[in-house]
Specification:
This protein is mainly beta. It contains three helices and 19 strands. The protein is globular.
Length: 421
């Protein structure tokens, strides 16, 4: 099934770099700080901003697919980020080194999560999470930029790493396209931004995976953004991704859509996001849709005195694949192109963050997140029954930890060049 992708072949090289510092933003969430990325465009001096972060946390769930309650500790989002500019910011660098392949090899316990062979656990990201070189310039009334390397496709919303919650939303693989070898261009005129990218379609197979050169150009995406006010933006995007789950190119393709609205106050103290995303798995051989998954998410965060408060509501469809002897894992790559069903997850999450504590240049923010989850089969013909797998359809998840940061806050992730509003 699917189609072969004909591009020049290249050897895959294992990424072994792993470097991290403990980190988290001084406010409740990464979105709350916009001060860390200022690079004056009239200065010719090179600029660089570094940030190290990680989140030591503990998660308790009252039910798991292995039966009974479970409590686990993890060191998540252990990354070192660099943002640099030189030549009056006409040249830029965006780099993120991720150590999750070392700190959470078995994934992070997270009910509802899925992707890259993990289920009910968030998978570790690749060591070389992001490395993009960019150029920017002017053309008449507009500004242009071009970037290339490994990073995010121009699709969907900001990566959850720079949003209010430590736990990623279930829709991560529906709402973002990341860790691809990509060339992306962007143009901005007034409040309007348009991006287009061509990239490698395959998802990473493991933390050390690099993009396959022979797959470059088999996938593409476009995104349009309107910034009607400095504090607001509207986004819509579309992507066609070739065989993301089968590196050899014989898997189902994906056709993805996303629409969102985002607002952040000037001081970062108030934030809101509404998004809708849809992914259709497409059988290229038969030229027909095989499966489809939708997601709707609303999240908001605000400061209440010295405390931070956040709320997230989400409804996301999750494909159910055959699990291995380890009930938190599925075959990678998939052994066939069928699924056992589609589960609709509805979640409500509330979070509170205590006042920040500082140790010299390091800032720590203790937090607590509580989620109520409901899992139901979207189709009565499904072979996957949440009541049987989990023992019940309504579940609880409690997460506590400390966000710790060293360095300048990075408030956005997933856009490059002039596409950053």
């Amino acid at each position: 099934m699917g189609h072969r992708h004909r591009c020049a072949s290249a050897r895959r090289v294992a990424a072994t770099a792993a470097l991290y510092l403990l980190a988290a933003p001084p406010a409740f969430a990464q979105h709350a700080g916009h001060e860390g990325m200022a690079m004056p465009s009239d200065s010719g001096a090179p600029t660089i901003h570094l940030m190290g972060q990680a989140i030591p946390l503990a998660t308790h769930v009252d039910r798991t697919p292995s039966g009974g309650a479970r409590t686990e500790g993890s060191l998540t989002q252990a990354v070192l980020m660099a943002r640099a500019g030189w030549w009056h910011r006409r040249a830029t660098l965006d780099a993120t080194i991720d150590a999750e392949g070392f700190t959470m090899r078995s994934g992070e316990l997270s009910l509802g999560a899925f992707g890259e062979g993990f289920v009910d656990r968030r998978h570790p990201h690749t060591y070389l999470h992001e490395l993009m070189l960019g150029l920017r310039g002017h053309a008449g009334p507009g500004t242009l930029s071009l970037g290339a390397g490994r990073g995010f496709a121009p699709f969907g919303t900001d990566d959850p790493m720079v949003r209010p919650f430590a736990k990623y939303p279930i829709n991560h693989h529906l709402a973002q396209v990341l860790e691809r070898g990509i060339v992306v261009g962007a143009a901005r005129v007034g409040p309007a931004i348009v991006e287009a990218g061509s990239f490698t379609g395959e998802e990473p197979q493991r933390a050390s995976s690099l993009p396959l050169a022979r797959r470059f150009g088999d996938s593409w995406s476009v995104r349009g953004t309107i910034v009607p006010r400095p504090w607001a933006e509207l986004q819509t995007s579309y992507a066609r991704i070739a065989s993301p789950e089968q590196a050899d190119g014989f898997g189902l393709d994906q056709r993805k859509q996303s629409v969102s609205a985002r607002a952040v106050s000037s001081d970062g103290g108030r934030y809101a996001l509404v998004e809708w995303a849809r992914t259709v798995e497409y059988d290229h051989t038969r030229r027909e849709a095989a499966f489809s998954y939708e997601s709707v998410l609303v999240e908001s965060a605000w400061r209440a005195g010295a405390f931070g408060v956040a709320v997230r509501l989400e409804q996301t469809d999750r494909p159910e694949e055959e699990r291995l002897a380890d009930p938190f894992r599925t075959a990678r790559p998939a052994t066939d192109l069928h699924i056992a069903g589609i589960t609709r997850w509805r979640t409500a999450t509330a979070a509170v963050a205590a006042p920040a504590v500082t140790w010299g240049t390091v800032v720590g923010v203790p937090f607590l997140e509580l989620s109520r989850l409901a899992a139901t089969a979207r189709d009565t013909r499904t072979l996957f029954d949440p009541d049987i797998v989990y023992g019940r359809s309504h579940l609880w998840m409690l997460t506590g930890g400390v966000r710790v940061r060293a360095g300048a806050t990075h408030s956005r992730m997933g856009r490059y060049g002039v596409a950053v509003p």
